[in-house]
Design goal:
The chain is of the alpha/beta class. The chain is 34% helix and 16% strand. It has an eight-stranded mixed sheet. Strands 3-2-1-4-5 form a five-stranded parallel sheet. The longest helix is centred in the first third of the chain and has 16 residues, at 114-129.
Amino acid sequence: MKWQSKRHEFDDYAKQLIADLDLHNKKYYIFGAGKVGRTLLPVFEAYNYTIAFIDNSVEKQQDKVNGVKVISLDYYLRKKDAPIIVAVSIKNTLSIVEQLEENDLKRGKDYFLYEEFTNYIFPVISTYYYDKVFVSLAQICVTERCTLKCRKCAHGCYAVDNRNAKDLTLEQIHKSADSFFGKVDFIREFVLIGGEPLLYKNLSEAIQYIGKYYRKQIGIFSITTNGTIVPDEEILKVCKRYHVLFRISNYSRTIPRLNEKYDRLTTKLKEEDIKYVLGSPESEWTDYGFDHFNRHASEEELIKVFDACQTSCREIRENKYYYCVMARSVSENVGFNKGQEEYLDLDALQGEGYKKEFLEFNLGYSEKGYLDMCNFCYGEERVNYPIPAAEQMRGTSYGQQ
């Protein structure tokens, strides 16, 4: 979307949203007392909301989850004193929505879906009602080097020469965190990614710095890893201190040998009492098209592509806040050299209304209304181009010889 009225794009929408929701009530219900639902707890705690879970599990209704009361939908319907956030897996969302609609609850008024609430609704509420900048997800890419060479890596890391690639310096990571948290009051999940972040030699120092100065502004502090490296004792020590979650991608269907590495990593994390999530085995990715596709599209067409995509993958790189981490990383790693200036300068955000400008950029507004790399990306259409997950390039240690 092109900026038409910078720092005022959401004025009318926010006014209506605040009028429709009883924000003085400071209460929400989370439908789903599982992994997804629990990710909202630190957010609502930071904003001093009263929370209760709704869950269809009679067993969960007998006890609290993370210290939070769990009730049935029938119990809720007798009160209906606050909106519901549906926070369950994608496969279970439809059945829950049907259950709510059967009880005359309306989307956008009585309930919201998790993604729309965390990525769109609550950032607007936070900025306009609480005068606080809220971000659902953002990440620092500490290194583009990786232990795998996935043929269709969405970051283009297959093109990176591990021997000569330059990681971010520790000073750059400090600057990234300082610039970001100098403008952002709270983030649902803050991620250190790669490449493979456990290749980064200063990882423990990076975690220490972010944890020491900004942990209270972070709901979930996580590392996304491919599971091929067991972290050293210093990394484990700071991860435990600052409650860092390991998100482990699971490529065992394509690379069965990785199961042994996952076992070693998860065993070590259990021993150190560090939380982790080992993903379900992935058999299929979607092709973004970066290595072969070119739209040759007009400005108007590219704006439509960008608006339809709505990626949630933000990146901080010193003072630069990128809307799409993949556009930035692929452009650099594969050599497109496109869109180097397509970022929000966090240090330049000043004066009255800068929080609204941040909100607008974070929700898809910019001077051009699109990214140059949109020309080389299938965008939302990528779901029509399935590919094998984590297929290794020939000549690599995990690929075909």
